[in-house]
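Quick check before the chapter quiz. The format below is the same one you will see on the exam, so make sure you can read both the input and the output lines.
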Amino acid sequence: QGNLVESGGGSVQAGGSLRLSCVASAYTDSRRCVGWFRQVPGKEREGVATINRASGNNVYVDSAKGRFFLSQDTAKNTVYLQMNNLKVEDTAMYYCAAGGAHMYGFCYMTSADYAYWGQGTQVTVSS
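Here is the expected output.
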């Protein structure tokens, strides 16, 4: 798949929080960007957030703004997605991916721009 490993998924009630982790392997220009995506069966994969590992620039989908926050530990090659105030509609399989495409330092949020993928971690939010 690309040697990315996600963890941190689980089941929470609405309003709760989870922190997802993605071990993304060593930085290279082709892995400058790490994106988080999610997918529900029968629906297309949706971009949630991206981070430029070199600059720290973040991009969030509108539904995640103010609730989800990206951070990274460069020494551990790990990117974190802190998810707060979770909603039932956040339920999905979450994937992290690495790629190099960006514009003015901000990484794209389309899955086609990411060549390396993890296996995913399930997030389930109940009402």
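If your answer matched, good. The chain has a mean pLDDT of 95.
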